[in-house]
Design brief:
This protein is an alpha+beta fold. It has 25 helices and 21 strands. The strands form six sheets. Strands 2, 3, 4, 5, 10, 16 and 17 form a seven-stranded mixed β-sheet that branches. Strand 11 and strand 12 form a beta hairpin. The radius of gyration is 35 Å and the shape is elongated. The protein starts with a helix and ends in a 13-residue tail after the last helix. The relative contact order is 0.11.
Length: 741
């Protein structure tokens, strides 16, 4: 190459470089000189956003000020809408799910589909709340055309119906599979009844654009979180979505370390419920994230879509006191999303603390004794020997006679509030139904523990007096027939008789014959008039949700059920606590308290006081509510007490347990016959009070299929041991709770 050509090339290259440098100079001048001020302003621009500041929930304490449920500082993993990356959200969710699972942290996921294939719905009935929510979700998605999915032409004959046995992928909760249309691909309307869990997962994979490379388990994780985000309406106006609560420090640190891979994921500090006792789970209840359906009803009361509220028990009953009022805070960030400052715009107002009538020690003893004695009855076959089956569950209720305050309300089996979510599936599948509150939701035949009611009605109506004696002739012939002849238990057992006895002796020996005659003389209407005044067969109005009314046997209940007309002879069985009598343990304890206090029928209650969060003032001082007022004569009360005293002394049915007991008490045992598959089974029941001369508490204990009241008596003794021990050496009230009376 000659020198002339080289010079031309060098000249061209220099010109190009000069042009390039000129363009760069012009661009820099534009950035720094012409528009520099604007760009600087954009770089320094701050963004201020408002966030809700959750209020601390009020604490729950027992009658002596001991905390049952308190608060502790905790961490939540949240998604911030303004920094959330829609393009990579599935990957972010999958990474976060893996972190949570490795740490054993449960994250919010209410999608009612099993975690792994073959997928199945997790609700037990199409009427369950989760099923109803899913039905609405499907309908809404169809209405908004969110699926945008066609049903591919199936490779089977037209109108072929796939059964569960032929193709697990088409299983549905009611056994009805979708009918494929072989004519052509077409859009469909999705209903829960016709869409199997596997089919729904395929729809969700497409709806949420879950990559095909994801396994079925990974797709289920992503779909669960995306479904929950949709339910919580994660958006610019609901800008924080809570992925998981109660995260530990190690998990929080790991999330922060991997923040580069988790865009939009933030850590917030909040209050979490701390359970200071394993007792009273059915009473205290739990809290949880608000459901969309709840939000629709409560949004006007200031609830947000991330709100935590009471789901059951006293947490739900006292929600208006406990919840407090959320505040707001402002967060200032630069354009890059870095937080520059946080300010409290409106301070949160904590909820009120609830002081209960509950005695933690007494509650613990009742629960422990129920569990121990029920297991002992099983092991010793006591129930089978005394006409029962295998003891299953039970309940114990202790009520203050003069106020209706509940000192203990135990249901067995029970569960642990602290691990409720992790244990949920196991609890649901347990045949003994540990989540069922037998004390207020279980209605049982009372057996002979109903006889004090019959005694009260007979004495107060005047058909008998305390001096009236009736001779036990064994078989009761007044309503005898070729098919059935009622008789006293002592006649059926050993052809014996209680002889010529008065009403107190009839209670002591549980003489059916005496109460047959007394009930015949007064009739079912008179008997039920007094039973209603004592609150039997009706809800007590106790604060806890889920209470049932039970059944007061008689013409009214029979007619309401559309059964055969009530016959006079049926009154005999009703009078001894059989027939269709079905009452809850709390009703039974409360009826006993009503008799003992002279006829003042109080509404049972758990609330003693509501005090401000800092204990500086009393928000509410509970005043007992009188539901009815009877005027029971002192003679009637003494006759009933005397008969119940005889049950636990001398040769009474519970004397072996309470003979020489240092505190004088009264009691009545019962063997409540059940029907159905266990037609020869009997619940063991025991109703009692103490002290005898000045009754302070009424106690009712039941053991399902426990055989007899004698089997139950040790539980009652344990309760009295704890109660009277507490009275002689009460636990001192802590100074910070000095307002508690």
């Amino acid at each position: 190459m000659n020198r002339r050509s080289q010079m031309k090339r060098m000249t061209a290259l220099c010109v190009l470089l000069a042009l390039f440098m000129g363009l760069m100079t012009l661009r820099l001048a534009d950035l720094q000189l012409v528009n520099g001020a604007d760009y600087r302003q954009q770089a320094e621009r701050t963004i201020v956003r408002a966030y809700s500041q959750p209020a601390a929930r009020g604490e729950i304490l027992d009658r002596y000020g001991r905390p049952l449920i308190s608060n502790a500082l905790g961490f939540s993993i949240t998604f911030d809408y303004f920094t959330w990356d829609d393009e990579t959200q599935n990957e972010t969710i999958l990474r976060l799910c893996q972190i949570a699972e490795d740490a054993g942290l449960e994250y919010y996921d209410s999608l009612p589909i099993s975690a792994a294939a073959p997928f199945a719905y997790t609700f037990s009935s199409l009427e369950d709340e989760e099923a109803k929510k899913m039905r609405s979700f499907l309908a809404e998605s169809d209405n908004r055309k969110l699926w945008d999915i066609k049903v591919d032409k199936p490779k089977v004959p037209a109108q072929k119906v796939w059964s569960k046995e032929q193709d697990p992928a088409t299983q549905s909760v009611n056994g009805v599979a979708m009918v494929a249309n072989a004519a052509s691909s077409r859009a469909i309307t999705h209903t829960l009844e016709e869409t199997s869990a596997s089919q729904l997962m395929e729809l969700l994979r497409k709806k949420y654009e879950i990559d095909e490379s994801c396994t079925s388990a990974q797709a289920r994780r992503i779909a669960g979180v995306r479904y929950e985000m949709e339910q919580q309406e994660f958006s610019s106006w609901n800008n924080l979505y809570t992925f998981a609560s109660q995260a530990d420090v190690d998990t929080v640190s790991l999330v922060k370390e991997r923040s580069g891979l988790l865009p939009g994921v933030t850590i917030t500090v909040d209050n979490v419920r701390q359970y200071n006792t394993a007792c009273a789970a059915h009473v205290l209840g739990r809290v949880g994230k608000i459901w969309k359906e709840e939000y629709d009803e409560l949004k006007d009361e200031g609830y947000g879509l991330n709100a935590i509220l009471g789901k059951d028990g006293l947490e739900k009953a006292y929600e208006p006191y406990l919840r407090g009022k959320d505040g707001t805070r402002s967060v200032e960030t630069n354009a890059a999303g870095d937080i520059l400052a946080e300010r409290e715009m409106e301070p949160a107002q904590p909820g009120a603390n609830m002081v209960l009538t509950l005695d933690l020690d007494l509650q613990a003893v009742a629960e422990e004794s129920l569990a121990r004695n029920i297991e002992q009855i099983r092991q010793n076959n006591q129930a089978r020997r005394s006409g029962g089956w295998d003891a299953e569950g039970g309940a114990a209720v202790v009520i203050e006679v003069d106020t209706g305050g509940i000192l203990a309300c135990a249901s067995y089996p029970t569960y642990n509030l602290e691990t409720f979510s992790a244990d949920f599936q196991t609890l649901m599948e347990d045949p003994l139904k540990p989540m069922f509150n037998r004390a207020i939701s279980g209605a049982y035949p009372p057996g002979s523990t109903f006889k004090p009611v019959t005694a009260l009605a007979a004495l107060e109506s005047g058909v008998v007096t305390t001096q009236t004696r009736i001779r036990d002739a064994g078989p009761y012939m007044f309503y005898a027939s070729s098919n059935y002849t009622p008789a006293c238990w002592i006649w059926n057992d050993r052809r014996g008789s209680h002889g010529n006895i008065n009403i107190s002796e009839a209670l002591k020996y549980s003489c059916n014959y005496y109460f047959y005659e007394a009930s015949r003389l007064m009739g079912i209407e008179t008997l039920n008039t007094y039973a209603k005044q004592l609150g039997l067969g009706q809800k007590t109005g106790v604060e806890i949700p889920g209470e049932v009314a039970g059944t007061l046997a008689g013409p009214e209940s029979r007619e309401a059920r559309g059964g055969d007309p009530w016959m006079p002879g049926e009154t005999l069985q009703a009078a001894i606590g059989q027939s269709e009598q079905q009452f809850t343990p709390i009703q039974m304890a409360n009826y006993m308290a009503t008799i003992l206090n002279g006829g003042t029928h109080y509404q049972p209650h758990f609330l003693k006081q509501a005090v401000s969060y800092d204990y500086s003032e009393i928000v509410e001082d509970y005043q007992p509510v009188v539901l009815d007022q009877m005027d029971i004569s002192p003679e009637t009360i003494e006759a009933i007490k005397e008969g119940m005293r005889g049950v636990v002394t001398d040769d009474g049915t519970a004397a072996s347990i309470f003979r020489n007991y240092p505190i004088a008490i009264g009691g009545k045992t019962g063997s409540a016959q059940t029907t159905g598959d266990r037609s020869r089974s009997a619940h063991g029941v025991f109703i009692s009070f103490a002290p005898y001369d000045d009754p302070q508490i009424a106690v009712f204990v039941l053991v399902e299929h426990g055989g007899s009241g004698g089997n139950v008596a040790p539980i009652v003794r344990d309760i009295y041991d704890a109660y009277f021990g507490k009275q002689t050496d009460p636990t001192p009230v802590t100074p910070e709770n000095q307002l508690i009376a």
